[in-house]
TrEMBL record:
Keywords: Cytoplasm, FAD, Flavoprotein, Heme biosynthesis, Oxidoreductase
Family: Belongs to the protoporphyrinogen/coproporphyrinogen oxidase family. Coproporphyrinogen III oxidase subfamily.
Compartments, as annotated in UniProt: Cytoplasm
Family annotation (Gene3D superfamilies): FAD/NAD(P)-binding domain, protoporphyrinogen ix oxidase, domain 3, Protoporphyrinogen oxidase, mitochondrial, domain 2
Protein name as catalogued: Coproporphyrinogen III oxidase
Family annotation (Pfam families): Amino_oxidase (PF01593)
GO molecular function: oxygen-dependent protoporphyrinogen oxidase activity
Residues of the Amine oxidase domain: 15-464
Pathway this chain belongs to: Porphyrin-containing compound metabolism; protoheme biosynthesis
InterPro entries: Amino_oxidase (IPR002937), FAD/NAD-bd_sf (IPR036188), Protoporphyrinogen_oxidase (IPR004572), Zeta_carotene_desat/Oxidored (IPR050464)
Cofactor(s) essential for the protein: FAD
Length: 470
C-alpha cells in the first residue's frame, strides 16, 4: 500500500524558517518519505531582516551584516549549499569604546567585556584607579547567592562594580540590539557568565581559562577575526537556500490570519481567502506576530508583554580623502556618552578582502536602543544629520556623504527580560498540549543570533520528521 503523503508547513521566511524548510526537504529526500512541504512568507521576498543592497559598487547589508565565526552552524550550512568559497572573514583589528565622550581602545585580552590581562587593563584609561580596584574585586568575591534568573546588570555590577560595567561591559553586551542590561535575563542572554562563575567563581579567572581552552565559548572584540560574511553580502545565503528549495512550495505575499485544529491537523487560514491543512506546522515568526493567532485559545499569554526594541542601520559612503580616522575596525558607545549612535564599523577596514569602489569608504552606524527609540522614527535626513554629527566627534570628516542608506527595524529586536526561559518553556508546554502538531521557533524564543536561529530551524525540522514517523 502506498504511504500517505504528509503535509508540513513552515510559516515565516526569515533565516529560521528558511533553514527549517531546507532541512525538512533534505531529511525527507534522504529518508524517502512522501512529505509535501510549503513555506509561507507574508512579504514578497524571503530573508526577513537579511537584506543586501548593491549601490554604486558597494555591497550594503541593511540588516545583519555578518555572523560570529566561532558558532559554526552557518559555515557548515554554507558548505552544504556550495557557497563556502564566498565566505569572507573580518580583519583582526582593534575595537574601541566611547565612554564619557572619549574614544578609548578596548584593552587587549578583553573577553566579552571581562578583562583577563591585568597589564593592559591597568594601563587603560577606561576606568579610574578606584574603578580598576573595584573591578579586580571579582577575584575575591564569592559566587552570586541568587537562585534562579536575575538581570545581567545586577550580576555584572556585583562582580565588577559600576564603572567598568558602564564604560565597557554594557556597551559591548547590549550590542547593536540596544538592550537594557538591567532588564536583560542572565540565563537567557548570557548563560555562559553564570556557568563560568559556577565553575570558577571568578569571571576574570574563568574567562581567561575558558578563552585559552576553547574559542567556541567566548570571543574577544579586539583580538580575533570573529566575524564572517559573504562576498555578495548576507543575502547570498538567503538566495542559496531559496534556490535549493526545489522540492518545496514557496508562497510569498501570503499571510496566515487564523489557526484551527481539526482531527489532529492544523488548518491555516490565509489572507487570500484560502486555507491549508497540515499534519505538522513550524511557526518561525516573532512572538508579536504569533500571539494573536493563539490568543483565542488562551495560549502564549506569557509572551504577550515581551518587549521589542526599534533600531536603524545607517550606511554612509564617502570619498576616501574626506575621512581621517585613527586605527581600528569600529567602536561601541557607552550610555554615559552624549551620542545617539550605539556602534559604528569602519567597513573597509573590517572587510579588507572585499571589493570596494576605488577611492571610496563606507561607514556603518547603528542608532536606537531601549529608552531612546524615538530617534528611529525621524526622517532619513534628520537621522543622517544626527549620525554625521556623532561621527564627526570621533574622526575628521569633510563635507557630506556621497549617499546614505537608512534602514529602520521597528519593534524588531526581541528583549530577553528576566524570567524569559521560564516563560518560553511554559508557552511551549501549553502549546504542546493544545496544538501538538505545532512548533514555535525564532529569535523571540531561543537566541537572536543568526546561528542560533539557524540551529532552531534545523532542530525543528528534525523534531517534525520524528513526529511524522511515530
Amino acid at each position: 500500500m502506498k504511504e500517505r503523503t504528509r503535509k508540513a508547513v513552515v510559516v515565516g521566511g526569515g533565516i529560521t524558517g528558511l533553514t527549517a524548510a531546507y532541512f525538512l526537504q533534505k531529511h525527507a529526500q534522504e529518508q524517502g518519505l512522501p512529505i509535501h512541504i510549503t513555506l509561507i512568507e507574508a512579504a514578497h521576498r524571503l530573508g526577513g531582516k537579511i537584506q543586501t543592497l548593491q549601490k554604486d559598487g558597494f555591497v550594503i547589508d541593511r540588516g545583519p551584516e555578518s555572523f560570529l565565526s566561532f558558532k559554526d552552524s552557518l559555515e557548515k550550512l554554507a558548505k552544504e549549499l556550495g557557497i563556502e568559497e564566498k565566505l569572507v572573514r573580518s580583519a583582526k583589528g582593534d575595537w574601541f569604546v566611547i565612554a564619557d565622550d572619549q574614544l578609548q581602545p578596548i584593552p587587549s585580552g578583553t573577553v566579552m567585556g571581562v578583562p583577563t590581562k591585568f597589564g593592559t587593563f591597568l594601563t587603560s584609561d577606561l576606568c579610574s584607579w578606584s574603578g580598576k580596584v573595584r573591578a579586580t574585586g571579582d577575584l575575591f568575591l564569592p559566587r552570586t547567592p541568587v537562585v534562579g534568573d536575575q538581570s545581567l546588570g545586577k550580576f555584572i555590577r556585583r562582580r565588577f562594580g559600576k564603572e567598568l560595567v558602564e564604560n565597557l561591559l554594557e556597551p559591548l553586551l547590549s550590542g547593536v540590539n540596544g538592550g537594557d542590561i538591567d532588564r536583560m535575563s542572565l540565563e537567557a542572554a548570557f548563560p555562559q557568565f553564570a556557568e563560568v562563575e559556577k565553575k570558577h567563581r571568578s569571571l576574570i579567572v574563568g574567562m581567561k581559562k575558558t578563552n585559552a581552552a576553547s574559542r567556541a565559548e567566548v570571543y574577544s572584540r579586539n583580538e580575533e577575526d570573529v566575524f564572517q560574511t559573504f562576498e555578495g553580502g548576507m543575502q547570498t545565503l538567503v538566495e542559496a537556500l531559496e534556490k535549493k528549495l526545489n522540492g518545496c512550495a514557496v508562497l510569498k505575499g501570503v499571510k496566515v490570519e487564523g489557526l484551527k485544529k481539526e482531527a489532529g491537523k492544523a488548518i491555516l487560514e490565509l489572507n487570500n481567502a484560502s486555507s491549508i491543512e497540515a499534519d505538522q506546522v513550524i511557526f518561525a515568526l516573532p512572538h508579536s506576530k504569533l500571539q494573536p493567532l493563539f490568543e483565542p485559545y488562551g495560549l502564549m499569554n506569557g509572551m504577550k508583554d515581551m518587549p521589542m526594541t526599534s533600531i536603524a542601520t545607517v550606511s554612509m559612503a564617502f570619498p576616501e580623502d574626506a575621512i581621517t580616522a585613527g586605527s581600528g575596525t569600529g567602536f561601541v558607545v557607552a550610555r554615559n556618552s552624549d551620542f545617539a549612535i550605539t556602534a559604528c564599523s569602519w567597513v573597509n577596514r573590517k572587510w579588507p578582502s572585499m571589493a570596494f569602489p576605488k577611492g571610496k569608504k563606507l561607514l556603518r552606524a547603528y542608532i536606537g536602543r531601549v529608552g531612546d527609540e524615538a530617534v528611529v522614527d525621524l526622517s532619513d535626513h534628520e537621522i543622517e544629520k544626527i549620525v554625521l554629527a556623532d561621527l564627526r566627534k570621533t574622526m575628521q570628516i569633510e563635507g557630506n556623504p556621497d549617499f546614505t542608506v537608512v534602514t529602520r527595524w521597528s519593534q524588531a529586536m526581541p528583549q530577553y527580560v528576566v524570567g524569559h526561559k521560564e516563560r518560553v518553556a511554559e508557552a511551549k508546554m501549553e502549546l504542546e498540549k493544545e496544538f501538538p502538531m505545532v512548533q514555535v521557533v525564532g529569535s523571540s524564543f531561543g537566541g537572536f543570533d543568526m546561528a542560533d536561529c539557524a540551529d532552531q530551524g534545523e532542530a525543528a525540522a528534525r523534531q517534525l520528521m520524528e513526529r511524522l514517523q511515530v
